[in-house]
Amino acid sequence: MDLSSRAVCGAELLQESGKLVKTTFILRYLQSQPLRRRIHAQLNKGEQLHALRAWLWFEAMALSVENKKMPSKILSDV
């Protein structure tokens, strides 16, 4: 067995090992209500954080646009 075929065998072994880990996790997920609840809670936290960041970004953009318009408004009032 040459070096390249050993590398291929090693890569295949890693792929199969990854499939086994994934399958084991899926089975644990399906069997465990507390695990599903914990994962769901973490997903909700992530979604809420994403929504907050999006809201803050849009607020910052609105303030930026408002600040850019302000000097011309001041000049037109004079």
UniProtKB/TrEMBL annotation:
Gene Ontology terms: biological process: DNA transposition
Protein name from the UniProt record: Tn3 transposase DDE domain-containing protein
Highest taxon, organism lineage: Bacteria
One term of GO molecular function: transposase activity
Domain Tn3 transposase DDE stretches: 14-60
A Pfam family that the UniProt record links to this protein: DDE_Tnp_Tn3
